[in-house]
């Protein structure tokens, strides 16, 4: 797609132009897109102005001194309440009148096109169109009550006399009165008449009608300040705030329309996060419930510290709770609960963990208890004996601050040298060069790992205790019952553990400022204690870093709109010029966005910057990891996540990934896999992450950005010419900055073309001969292992015979012999008469005995081949499942040209089963069931098979059996089995039956296409195949043997022929134990990956190139490259995605904002968003990574 692809298609443009005016005005629909009667518009205008009219009545009575101001407010509010209830009852009446018509579900083309038929001014359709009504009766009453309260308080808020007292300007009073009532009318209309779709959409669905409360809430906030000013007296600060807010009140409709003010759910989640992090010293949480609980506990801790009567008690309380609340309490509780339940029910099955859980055992308990004890002792002793000295150059607190400065510099240096680029710009001379294998990488990084251990010790144990010493020595703690002390010091005593690196930076900045200004009587020293200073420095630090990050993102969007040719649109020159001319405005937008900690929204990802609404750091409302676009590729990510989380554990602790905070994003790359990591929570010795996997089926946009990611990582890690000392990062402007490489245990994927192997005549001839050997081995191993199982069951039954008597002989027969399948519904020669001339060729229900067999129930429905009737069309079965062939393309579908002609009067010469008498009594353990020897094979073919049967191989296999599971066995057991001719005849007949099913009775060499069909289980119909598929157990063993044989053929072509029986057995045992050989589409393929089989092999066919391909997955520890993303760039693009899909409903798959952008990684960022807006194929639950 070109760069000038439309931002919105024609239909969406028309839709947007209808929706946006409705959003601006709060709900009235004046632009419908079709011709509507005039009374539709008149009715909406009347309803829009009704609050103003009702408020105007009260205002007029007040201005004429007929009523007091609070009486006028009560009168206007009461009138609005009655009006709102009447309107809602009108809607209920209109819906009841039309309920019978709606039940008929008569299709109306006008309604399908979003048009309505209006019959009269007050008709049912008119009422329902203008007043949609509420879903819940509770909201009907509650919203009507709020409408009355808002109208009453709004009347009081906009009384002209009160406004004149504030500004002493008649013109200003008129402006505020008129446009202020417009704001209230907009809020009333959205609350009680029709709720407009908000541009600040956060949830995909408004289940509980919370959106209607958004505009009234902000109106109440402004009114609350005015009420506080009226009743609190003349406070200058409050008066100035009230004056500013009265002016800002007029611009509320623009703030709503631009989506700067969030909906209530996003507002409260964002507010709790901000207060918890910057006021209470905590961290954003991984779920909304955890956030609420932690917020309440942390706030309660700060409040409780206010009532402690002793300064020493306050210090101990803050130190102890600061440490405890910084721990991963939810996982500690989980571990404790799991331990208790395991003691109570030790036999409970263990569930597969998706990542490393924090095991809170005795070692961790002792460590945390020891750290807490030393922290309490240190804080109490220093505060008690040296906490009364004011800060000076020679004071103990100043001496500790010198240590803090040195420690911060050491920590910063140790963190930076762990990464491949210093400051993201210069190549790190200490980082290993040209790392391609895990062994070389681990060898070269051994020194850096030692540095990482030193940094971890300094970060976990040394730094917190030094900062506790600095805080405990502060004389501000002597001021009891001070709100500022309770808030400031509760925060910093917790932040020391919760976010050690940022706490150290804040403490160093405060100590340096104190050294510079401690002799000067300035506001910093006079009005603020150390706790509040640290709080202000922390907020400024965070907002300043956000401003720099957002500015970098804005410049990247602006510059790449011209430098990237594929992003250069016709409007690019105009947009760049406007950004340059209005650069102060753009800078102000970035600053406001940073202050609000909200995303900077590039509209359609163009250099048109808006302020997004504040939202939680996770960006999405739902629970983490609940939804994903699950597909067959999901299993590859699911397998690698536990190992990746373990690798992240050491990398995060060592500092290889830089400063990681909640909201940090990382991108990992390995072969065709892209892994997105989001840090969502952090505390003392742990962090919580969400890992997402992006699709493997690469589109053109996905491929373009993935190639750029590969180039960035290759330049950083693999190319020696770019690994020179202090060489520059050529991709510095990209939002991705390489950090390090992690050794992860995962599957490498190798695909190769089998031309020259599968089409070789010698190989195919050898394959047919080897199949007999492999099948003999598979059958012997199968019955040998089954005999082990039966022996174990027999031993278990001996203990239960007295209390549970059963027919052991019948049970053993059931175990050792598969049931007869003669009564199954198999498509064989015997069932041809079921299809008569009277049968409908396309009938879904067969006639005659086939229907009888089908009605026998589940016991008769063994898995078998589903073959089409000759000349028919594939149809859907009764269960709704479409019968499909397992093949990848039409070229290799089974072609059935008709059933063989049979003479009913003529009997075929079929081999009859002789009676068997084993010369060895133990031969029964390896005996083949009678049903597996019923194939209609001529007697002449059996004699031919006797000559082809590998007797020496058969004897060698039997000689390898040990029969250790048998308690009493003769010494000559293996010799007796070898000499048993009856047993050998059984295997000759069994092998011949399988060869008859897969290859037929002829001795020709199979074609490559036949080999492929046999491997995939899609051989064309034949009498032998029909018999074989009627024995599902035998068919699966034959298919397994054939796949082993094919893999053996590939290995022999690559590594050389097998020279001995022992070597062949080694091959087969390796296939059995270490390999899964099958198809990618098999469910067993996914199970083998999750069980971490060392190797997997699959045969495929490329219809485009016309070649056969082999795919090998190998489980091994390999390097996964990791880079850090610009978090504000990700949040900005996600904010645009949310606006574009939830508000503008621009879900066009070829829209501009989803096209490839190699610098912003736009397509990958969209994929990584939470569903339904994004489509990651895998998303983990919150993974708690221990950094202990």
Automatic annotation (TrEMBL):
Limits of the Pecanex C-terminal domain: 1027-1180
Entry keyword RNA-binding: no
Compartments reported by the entry: Membrane
Membrane-topology annotation of the record: Multi-pass membrane protein
Any one cellular-component term (Gene Ontology): membrane
Transmembrane domains' residue ranges: 39-64, 70-87, 136-158, 170-192, 213-232, 244-270, 291-308, 314-334, 365-386, 398-414, 453-473, 504-524, 575-596
Pfam family for this entry, one: Pecanex_C
InterPro entries, per the entry: Pecanex (IPR039797), Pecanex_C (IPR007735)
Keyword Transmembrane helix belongs to the record: yes
Keywords, alphabetical: Membrane, Transmembrane, Transmembrane helix
Family note: Belongs to the pecanex family.
Protein name, per record: Pecanex-like protein
Organism of origin: Alligator sinensis (Chinese alligator)
